[in-house]
Structures are given as structure tokens and as C-alpha cells.
């Protein structure tokens, strides 16, 4: 018999136009969660790199990056600390656009996003393609604030938000899945909010790097 | 049983720390020693199947075996904090898993390694676990807690912190009241600033490992000021608390 907390009931309406992943609650705020100080990034030195298993690594300056085609996207986002936020308003560059600039080596299957300040997180390459991922440059019509990862952050809305690396500096294409900062600390290698993959032990039993769901 | 499996704890004590803050002490059937700074996930389930989870920092030290203390601030319209504050009594059961978190933890380290703790409001909770661990384990690391609160009635753990400071010359407690100070208060009466942090660091015999926890504004400000004072990023660990930040 499942455990019930007597007298407990949902305080806010559930369901409706949006759906919350299990264990999440909706917030209207935009909480900030970061392990250390916010890095200070000088746009004159900013760069974004695609490297690793590509035929020719590429590097964009801030101006070059901003000249790439941009689009708006309005995802629901889900943080592993249990908050979800519906209909966030972003503008940025699709990963599909970026990946058009490189010839991937056939063995490239995983990505390590790396950031100013030293943060890293890992994702399957397949999760960054087909309109699923962006580099966000604007939030709610304004340049993305530093505490939220500005000037540029990865946004991969279908995974827990720690996969959406703040202050992103580039992506390294890899053959094997290598854990990043939080993954090393015991968090899920994949982070599907709908399957509540918060911690490594929540991953599928067969969740070795080669069999992660894509 | 893994520490990330859900277990059912029993509330063995509830203390009122401030008008909006209560500490729930839970006895756990599968207690695992935690590291000071870690948290537990708490899950509430309604009869209709609705479930929701929150993460709460552990306030008790790992030396308090078999049980954990979770200090919970009542959030306006808070679904979980409201239930805990209003609906939970000694003897009730709650579902939890943990300990969780591997980064915002104090590993103690060399006996001489100084510790600077900066808290805003209920951000003091994981830092209190570090201080209680330091005290109970007899760790000699010099330590300062700079604790920013709005009003005198909001000082969580006040008596225990004052007793700790009185008994231990290697621990310094610095309070700053940002809105209203007690009558006759001669200490800080404004937000944490560069001068206050420099004074806090000056109580310590060397460059400290810093743990900063509180609302986003305070954490952003303090972390930046500590960087400005020449502390390396690796020496500054942060955790942000807010009404919805975890």
C-alpha cells in the first residue's frame, strides 16, 4: 500500500494546459542555482568552440556568434531541485545551425558542454539535434543575465536544467559518454524529468554509456 | 538499501526556532552518516495520488546518529512547508531519501584550515550542520559565521550559536541585522559589504574555504566580493536559497 501523508493535498491546481513532470512544482520565479561564484566574462574575449571529433574545429567570437541566424523558443524548463517554469521566453541560436558549420566524425556520439568557470555537463549528441537544443542569448527580451548563465547558455529543455550549461564556452564531440561536474557528483548521466532521473541510481539499470535512451 | 531509496522516518521532535522556522527531528530506519552541508529529499503524497518533493538541508551533525534534523522555513503559500508547519506532529511519519549532494559539503581538511561561513536567513541551515560537526567532532579549524538576518526575531539557532561562540575562542559569530536591530545593538546593521567581509576574514589566521548560502542576491554579492578580495573561485562554494530555490 502506498504511503499517504494524512491531510495532504495539492495546494495549487494540477493539470491544465501544462503538465508537470513527477515530483516537480510550478514556480513563477526564475531561481538561480550555481555551485560557485558567477564568472565574469568579457565579451571582447568571449568565444564559442565546437571541438573534439569534428574534421575542422570552429570558433566564433561574440560578434560572429550573434551574426548567426537566431530564433525564438518558449520551452517549459524543469530543475532537478523540483521547480518547473512554463513558457519561458528565449532567443538564441539552434544547435542545428551550429552543427551545420562542422563535419562530424562518424564516431561522434556524445557531447561534453564546457563553460567559463570550469563547469561541464554531458549529453548524447542526438539530444542536441532536430530543434531540441539552443544557445540562449536573450531571456524575456533582454540579454541573458550573468546569474542565469549570460552572456550565453546551453538550453536543452527536455532534460533537467543542470544539463543546460550556464556560461557555455563550447561543445566537445566525443565517442564515449564522460560524466560532467554534477554527474561526477552522483547525478544522472541523462536527466529525463519525465522519468525522474535525478541521480545516477535513477538511471535505467542498463544505463551504461552505450545504452542511454536517446 | 541504497541511500537514494525512499524510507519512512518518524518525527521525534519539533522545535520552533523563529516565528516562521521550525526544526523537525526525524528518526530514520536506514540512517546513513552524511557530510555536513548535504540535504534530504522529502516527498509528500496525497490520497488522490498527487506527489511533490522538496530538498531540505540537514541541520544536524553526522555525530547525531540514527536521526536527522531538517530546519524548514514557512514559505508564503508553501505547499510542503505549509503542510509541515501546520499538519505534522510528533509521531507522524514522513517519506525521505538521502543524504544527497557532494559539492556544498565541508570536508574539514587540515586542522588549521580556516572556515568562513556566510549565511542569509534560512541559508544558515547547512552551515549549522558544519558548525555542529566541527563542535561535536572536536575539530579545531578556526571558523567565522557571518549571519545576515532582517530582524532580531529571525535569528535561527541564536542561543546555540551564542553559546558555541562563548565556549570556543576559535569560533567567531558575527550577526548583521539588515532591517531592524535589537535595542542597544552595537554590531553590524546593514547588508553584507566588502568591509564586513574583510573584517570576517581578518578573524581567521589564513585564507579560508568559504561557504555562502542564502537568497540569490546575497550569494551573488558575497561571492563576487570574496573574489574581489583575492580568494580563488575554488575556495568559494555557494548554495542559493529562495522561496522556490530548493
Automatic annotation (TrEMBL), chain A:
Residues 192-214 are annotated as: Disordered. InterPro entries: OxRdtase_Mopterin-bd_dom, OxRdtase_Mopterin-bd_sf. Pfam families: Oxidored_molyb. SUPFAM superfamilies: Oxidoreductase molybdopterin-binding domain. Residues 36-182 form the Oxidoreductase molybdopterin-binding domain. It comes from the Bacteria. PANTHER family: OXIDOREDUCTASE MOLYBDOPTERIN-BINDING DOMAIN-CONTAINING PROTEIN, PROTEIN-METHIONINE-SULFOXIDE REDUCTASE. This is Sulfite oxidase-like oxidoreductase. The lineage of its organism: Bacteria, Pseudomonadati, Bacteroidota, Cytophagia, Cytophagales.
TrEMBL record, chain B:
Residues 4-106 form the FAD-binding FR-type domain. It holds the Pfam family NAD_binding_1. GO terms for molecular function: oxidoreductase activity. InterPro entries: Cbr1-like_FAD-bd_dom (IPR008333), FAD-bd_FR_type (IPR017927), Flavoprot_Pyr_Nucl_cyt_Rdtase (IPR001709), FNR_nucleotide-bd (IPR039261), MRET (IPR050415), OxRdtase_FAD/NAD-bd (IPR001433), Riboflavin_synthase-like_b-brl (IPR017938). It comes from the Bacteria. This is Oxidoreductase. It comes from Hymenobacter nivis.
